[in-house]
Every structure is written in structure tokens, then in C-alpha cells.
UniProtKB/TrEMBL annotation:
Domain of life: Bacteria
Coiled-coil residues: none
DNA-binding region coordinates: 34-53
Residues annotated as domain HTH tetR-type: 11-71
Designated name of the protein: TetR family transcriptional regulator
Gene3D superfamilies: Tetracycline Repressor, domain 2 (1.10.357.10)
């Protein structure tokens, strides 16, 4: 987590530092990223950076967590737009993430250099018990009458399965250089196969 001094910065300065870090993590994966490049683009001294963050991992995971929260909000909107249909909302979310041009290189580097900690951050609301309030917020928007499940515990595990499939599809898209159309077609097919297995009727 950032130090309190970061949160005390004016919003404009915070955004400059965040965008500088995202630019660096979009250029190269975390292990190759340079604090020197981040502070050069941000126009701040190295000492100032360490007043705000412990190191490059600190600002990297702050960015991942920030994106996870934004995606949770988008996912809730997609659930509402699709009348609580979990699969349709997942497909809409997948397409939306593919079209996030400002984040696509950041995502490519994250997915192609995945670690357990990075995966944990990407999962966000589905990763652990600390996120129970977020999970409940999403769960409330899902039409569970369509699902062949017995309660929220099974819903939690369904979400784990769906996000695992989503992860693999992103890795395949970036590793094989699939077009957006190819990636969406494959993802839609796999989601439909899962839908046949988890939907009633």
C-alpha cells in the first residue's frame, strides 16, 4: 500500500505518478521495470518516490488493486445490463477489457508474467475472505434462479472456475497474438460450454 504521504498529494500529482508508473509497466513487466524511468516521466526526485511508495512492487500492486476495483464496478453494471445473467456479463466484461487500449500493454505484461501475487490482485473480489463485501455486492446482482447451484459457497466456486477460464483466454490471446475477434470467439464458445453445464434446463 502507498504511504499516507501519497494520499496527501494533490490529485493532479497523484495522477501524474500513477500514469508514469503505468507507462513503465506497460513497456516492460514488473521485474524489468525501472524506478528511474517512472520518476523521470513523473518529474520527481528519487527521494520523493520513496516518500510515497516502498518500491516498484508497491506502486505496481496499488495499480492492480485500483484496476480490480474499477472492473468490479463495471462488472456490476454489466450484470444489471444483462438482467443478472452471469455468463453474458462475463462475456461483456471480457470484450470490454480487450478494448481497454490504455491498459492493454499493461495487461499483456501482467498476464504473460503471471505470479500468484499478481493473480491474487487480478482476481480482486473473488480472491479471499477479505473481499466478502465486494463478493456480496456482485452476488446480489446475479440471477441465481438460472444457476444450478446451492447457495453462495457454490457461487463462489463457480466464479473461481469462470475467472480461471477468463485468465487462460487472456494468456492465450497475448501469447498467440490472437485478434480480438478470435479471442472473443474462443471465449464465447468456452463460456457457452460452461453455461450448458451450470444452467438449469
Amino acid at each position: 500500500m502507498p504511504r499516507q504521504t501519497f494520499f496527501n498529494l494533490p490529485e493532479e500529482k497523484k495522477q501524474i505518478l500513477i500514469h508514469s508508473a503505468e507507462k513503465e509497466f506497460s513497456r516492460v513487466p514488473l521485474f524489468e521495470a525501472s524506478i528511474a524511468n517512472i520518476i523521470k516521466v513523473a518529474g520527481i526526485p528519487r527521494g520523493s518516490f520513496y516518500q510515497y511508495f516502498e518500491g516498484k512492487e508497491d506502486i505496481y500492486f496499488y495499480l492492480l488493486d485500483k484496476m480490480a476495483k474499477q472492473r468490479k464496478d463495471k462488472f456490476i453494471v454489466f450484470l444489471q445490463d444483462h438482467d443478472g445473467d452471469l455468463i453474458e456479463a462475463m462475456v461483456a466484461m471480457f470484450e470490454c477489457m480487450l478494448h481497454e487500449e490504455e491498459h492493454i500493454n499493461f495487461m499483456r505484461n501482467a498476464f504473460l508474467n503471471m505470479t500468484h501475487k499478481v493473480e491474487h490482485s487480478f482476481l480482486g473480489i473473488f480472491s479471499d475472505e477479505e473481499s466478502i463485501d465486494d463478493f456480496n455486492e456482485v452476488s446480489a446482482q446475479i440471477d441465481k434462479r438460472k444457476l444450478n447451484i446451492a447457495g453462495d459457497q457454490e457461487l463462489y466456486h463457480i466464479m473461481q472456475i469462470l475467472t480461471a477460464v477468463t485468465f487462460r483466454n487472456f494468456v492465450e490471446k497475448f501469447a498467440q497474438g490472437l485478434s480480438e475477434e478470435q479471442a472473443i470467439e474462443t471465449y464465447q464458445m468456452e463460456m457457452n460450454l460452461l453455461k450448458k453445464g451450470i444452467y438449469i434446463g
